[in-house]
Design brief:
Chain lengths: 406, 352
C-alpha cells in the first residue's frame, strides 16, 4: 500500500506543527522519520493514521484520499503502534494481541480458529508467546512494546505506522524489532512508516529517511544520500557531537583539556580517542592515512588530525606538521599501533617526544617497546589499559594546570 | 523446541484462566438467587420457608397476610434490589472504562444531583402543586426528569467537546451546581421535610410497587443487553481512544452510546430508589478482581450478576440489622463495600 502526501499541513487545532510535506512512499518501503524532540514526527504519524485530521493538503493511501476511507476499512489496512504504553487493567498479553483482530471479527469480537492461530503467530513473531498468559500491566516496558507490535501484526495490515517503536528496548530487542519489520517489508510487502531516534539504526534499516526540523521537511531520500555529517549536525543542532556515516554512530567531541598527542593507526586509537573525548581531553593525532578507521574516529570526536594519502609512506610535510603539533601538547601517547613500511616514521615521532622530554606513555608490553624504542624504552611509561592511562593523564594535566597558574 | 514447550504452557495457563470464568459467573448467579430467596423469606413477619415457596410459585399461603406480605411488599422490593444493583453496577463499569478512571461511578456526570435537585424542588420547595403529601410516583417522575435533564445536557456537551477530561469536569461541575441549589432549599425548608429529604438522598428499596418494578425491568432488559453489545468497542477503549480509533471504532457514536446507556441506567434507578451510593463504583472492581479480567464480554455479565447479589445482600442488611428501624441503603452498601474493595485490591499485584 503506497502512501503519498500533497502539500500536507499537520498540527493541532490552529497550531501548525509541520507544513509543506510532500512525500511519496511506495508499497513495501521502510520509511524512517528523524528529527529532534518536538519537531512534529508524532504529529505527522498521527495524521497518517487518521487520528488527527490534516490542517491542509491531502494524504493519499493508495490512490484514495485518506478522508474518504472509513475507519473500519482503514483498520483492516493500517495498524498503528503509538508511543506511551496504555494501562488496560486486567488484560492478558493474549487479550491485547487479540485486539489486533478487531477489524476482522464479528459484532461481539468472537475469535475464530483462524484468528487464534494468527494471534499466536504474531506472538511468536515478536518472541512473546511465553508471555501470553501474563497480565499486560505486569510486563516490563520493553516487553509491552513488543506485545503492542504483535497486536499491530495480528491486525494483518498493509501499512504499519510506528511512533518510536524501539525507544524502550534493549539493544537485542531493538535489533529484533527492526529485523521483524524488515522481514514484513520483504516477505509481505508491508509498508512501514516509523519515527526513530537512532540515526545509526535508521541508516541501516530504512529505505527512505525523512528529516523533519523547524516545521519543515529538511531532507528526504535514501539514507546513504541524506544522512551526511553536516546535515545530521544541522538536524539536531549538534555542537559537542557529530555523526559519522562511515562509522554509523555518534561521537562526542572533546573540549580540550590538554591537549594530548596520540600516535595511533589501524584501529589502535579508536577506543582511546573516544575515552579521551569523554574525559574532555583535547586530542592531536597523526600521522594517519585517510583510509584508516582511526582517522574517521579521530575526526568524529573532533581531534586535530595530521593525515596522509592512503598506502603512502609518511611525507616530510606531514611529519613536520605532526612534529609542530607535538610541541604544543603536554603529553604523548603511543596507542600501540602496528608498525609497517608506510608508518615507520610515526616511531620517530614518539622518539622525538622522548628527546624533547615530554611525558610519554605506551599501550604496549615491555618487550615490544624495547624492540621498538631500544634504549629510550625505559623512559616510556607503560600502561596496561586505557582507564589506567586516563588516570595518569589526568594527574599530570592537573599538575600542569596548577603549575601554569602559579 | 523450547519455544513450543513455552507456548503450550502459556496456552495451558490461559485456558485455565478461561475455564475459571463460568465458575465465577455461576457463583455470582447462585449468590444473587440465594439473596433473592432470603429477601423474600426473611423480615419482621415470620413466614415459614415452605409457605414462602408455595406463595411465590403462585399457590396459597397459610394465611392471606403471608400472601399479601410476600406479593405486595417483599417480592417487588427484592426484584427491584436485583435490578437496581445490576443497572448501577453496569452504569459504573461503562463509565470507568470510558473515562479510563477507576474511581468513576455512574453518578459522576451529575445524574444523581439532577434528580436530587428536582426532588428537592418538590419536597422542600413547595412545588407540591397543592397536594398535602407528595405522591411517591410523582416524586419518581420528578427524579427521572432531573436525571434525564442532566443526561441530555451531558450528551449535548459530549457531542461538542473532544476531550473526555473536559466532559468529566463539566459533569462534576453540573453536579455541584445542582447540589448547591438543593442546599439552598434545605436552608429554607422545615426540619421535618429536610429529614425526609435527606433519607431520600440516601436511597431505599422500600415501598417498591409492581408498576415501578415493571418500568425498571423494561429499562434494564433493554439497556443491559445493549451494554453487552458494545463490549467489543468497549474493550478497544481499554487501550485508549487513539488505539480504539485505529482499530476502527466510531469514537463519536460510541461516546454517545456509552453516556446514554450508563446515564439512562442510573436515571431509572435513581428515580425509584434514590441515589444508591457505592454499588456502581465498587461492584465493577469486585467483579474485575474476582474474575481476573477486564475483558468486558466477561465482565459485563459478571457485573450484572454481582451487582444484583451485592445490592440484595445490602438491602437484606438494611432491613434486618436494626429491624424495625430500616437503614438507608447507601449506608450499608458503603459500609460493607469499601472494605471488600480494599481487601481485594491489596491481594492483587496488577493495577486495575
Amino acid at each position: 500500500m503506497s502512501l503519498r502526501t500533497r502539500s500536507l499541513k499537520v498540527g493541532y487545532g490552529k497550531r501548525v506543527v509541520v507544513e509543506d510535506i510532500d512525500l511519496e512512499v511506495l508499497r513495501g518501503r521502510f520509511v524512517g522519520l528523524l528529527g529532534p524532540n518536538g519537531c512534529g514526527k508524532s504529529t505527522i504519524l498521527r495524521t497518517f493514521a487518521k487520528i488527527l485530521a490534516p490542517l491542509g493538503g491531502t494524504v493519499y493511501l493508495g490512490k484514495r484520499d485518506l478522508r474518504r476511507i472509513g475507519q473500519g476499512e482503514l483498520a483492516r489496512r493500517m495498524a498503528v503502534v503509538l508511543t506511551g504504553t496504555p494501562s488496560p487493567g486486567l488484560l492478558t498479553t493474549f487479550d491485547i494481541v487479540a485486539m489486533g483482530r478487531y477489524p476482522h471479527t464479528g459484532f461481539l469480537g468472537r475469535l475464530g480458529k483462524e484468528d487464534i492461530e494468527k494471534i499466536w503467530e504474531a506472538l511468536r513473531t515478536v518472541g512473546a508467546s511465553e508471555l501470553a498468559h501474563r497480565y499486560f500491566g505486569e510486563l516490563s516496558d520493553g516487553e509491552k512494546q513488543k506485545v503492542l507490535l504483535a497486536r499491530a501484526l495480528a491486525q494483518e495490515p498493509e501499512i504499519i505506522i510506528l511512533d518510536e517503536p524501539t525507544s524502550h528496548l534493549d539493544p537485542r530487542y531493538r535489533i529484533e524489532v527492526v529485523l521483524i519489520l524488515r522481514r514484513l517489508v520483504r516477505e509481505k510487502g508491508v509498508t512501514i512508516v516509523a519515527s526513530l531516534h537512532d540515526i545509526d539504526l535508521a541508516m541501516k534499516v530504512c529505505d527512505i529517511v525523512v528529516l523533519v526540523k523547524d516545521g519543515r521537511v529538511l531532507a528526504c531520500g535514501p539514507p546513504e544520500e541524506v544522512l551526511e555529517e553536516e546535515r545530521i549536525a544541522e538536524l539536531y543542532n549538534f555542537e559537542r557531537a557529530s555523526f559519522n556515516s562511515f562509522l554509523g554512530g555518534i561521537e562526542l567531541k572533546s573540549r580540550s583539556i590538554g591537549p594530548v598527542y596520540v600516535v595511533a593507526g589501524s584501529g589502535s586509537g579508536a577506543q582511546l580517542y573516544r575515552t579521551l573525548a569523554k574525559h574532555d581531553f583535547g586530542i592531536f593525532t597523526g600521522v594517519l592515512p585517510e583510509n584508516d578507521v582511526d582517522f574517521h574516529v579521530a575526526r568524529a570526536v573532533g581531534a586535530t588530525v595530521v593525515k596522509e594519502k592512503p598506502y603512502r609512506e609518511i611525507s616530510p610535510e606531514s611529519f613536520l606538521q605532526a612534529s609542530e603539533l607535538m610541541k604544543e601538547s603536554h603529553q604523548v601517547v603511543d596507542a600501540g599501533f602496528p608498525v609497517g613500511e608506510a608508518n615507520r616514521r610515526n616511531l620517530e615521532l614518539v622518539l622525538g617526544a622522548l628527546r624533547q622530554g615530554k611525558v610519554t606513555y605506551a599501550l604496549r608490553n615491555e618487550e615490544e617497546s624495547r624492540r621498538l624504542y631500544g634504549p629510550h624504552a625505559s623512559r616510556i611509561i607503560r600502561s596496561r589499559n586505557i582507564s589506567s592511562l586516563i588516570e595518569r593523564l589526568w594527574a599530570v594535566e592537573c599538575l600542569c594546570e596548577g603549575g601554569g597558574s602559579s | 523446541m523450547d519455544e513450543a514447550v513455552e507456548m503450550t504452557s502459556a496456552s495451558a495457563l490461559l485456558e485455565r484462566r478461561w475455564a475459571r470464568y463460568p465458575l465465577v459467573l455461576g457463583t455470582f448467579g447462585v449468590g444473587a438467587f440465594v439473596f433473592l430467596v432470603l429477601n423474600v423469606s426473611l423480615g419482621s413477619v415470620q413466614i415459614p420457608l415452605p409457605d414462602t415457596c408455595r406463595i411465590v410459585l403462585g399457590g396459597e399461603g397459610s394465611t392471606w397476610v403471608f400472601r399479601s406480605v410476600i406479593w405486595k411488599i417483599r417480592l417487588p422490593r427484592a426484584l427491584a434490589g436485583l435490578l437496581c444493583g445490576s443497572s448501577l453496577a453496569v452504569g459504573g463499569l461503562l463509565l470507568q472504562v470510558f473515562f479510563r478512571n477507576p474511581i468513576v461511578g455512574p453518578y459522576i456526570l451529575g445524574i444523581s444531583s439532577g434528580a436530587t435537585l428536582t426532588v428537592a424542588l418538590i419536597m422542600l420547595g413547595g412545588f407540591a402543586l397543592g397536594f398535602a403529601s407528595v405522591h411517591p410516583f410523582f416524586l419518581s417522575l420528578a427524579a427521572l426528569v432531573g436525571a434525564m435533564g442532566v443526561m441530555f445536557i451531558v450528551i449535548a456537551v459530549a457531542a461538542k467537546v473532544r476531550d473526555m477530561i473536559t466532559l468529566l469536569v463539566i459533569g462534576l461541575m453540573m453536579g455541584y451546581i445542582a447540589s448547591a441549589l438543593s442546599n439552598f432549599l434545605i436552608a429554607f425548608a422545615e426540619k421535618e421535610r429536610v429529614h425526609k429529604f435527606v433519607l431520600w438522598t440516601l436511597g431505599s428499596f422500600s415501598g417498591f410497587r409492581w408498576d415501578e418494578v415493571k418500568i425498571l425491568a423494561i429499562a434494564a432488559s433493554l439497556l443491559l443487553p445493549a451494554s453487552f453489545l458494545i463490549s467489543k468497542p468497549l474493550n478497544a477503549f481499554l487501550l485508549g481512544e487513539e488505539y480504539a480509533k485505529s482499530m476502527g471504532v466510531n469514537v463519536k457514536l460510541f461516546r454517545l452510546l456509552v453516556i446514554f446507556i450508563s446515564s439512562a441506567l442510573a436515571s431509572v434507578v435513581t428515580a425509584f430508589a434514590g441515589p444508591v451510593a457505592f454499588v456502581g463504583l465498587a461492584v465493577p472492581h469486585m467483579a474485575r478482581l474476582c474474575l481476573g479480567t477486564s475483558d468486558n464480554r466477561i465482565l459485563i455479565p459478571g457485573t450484572i450478576l454481582l451487582g444484583a447479589t451485592i445490592a440484595s445482600f445490602c438491602d437484606l442488611l438494611a432491613r434486618t440489622l436494626f429491624s424495625p428501624v430500616e437503614l438507608p441503603i447507601s449506608a450499608t452498601t458503603s459500609l460493607f463495600g469499601a472494605p471488600v474493595v480494599i481487601i481485594l485490591l491489596l491481594k492483587r499485584r496488577a493495577a486495575i
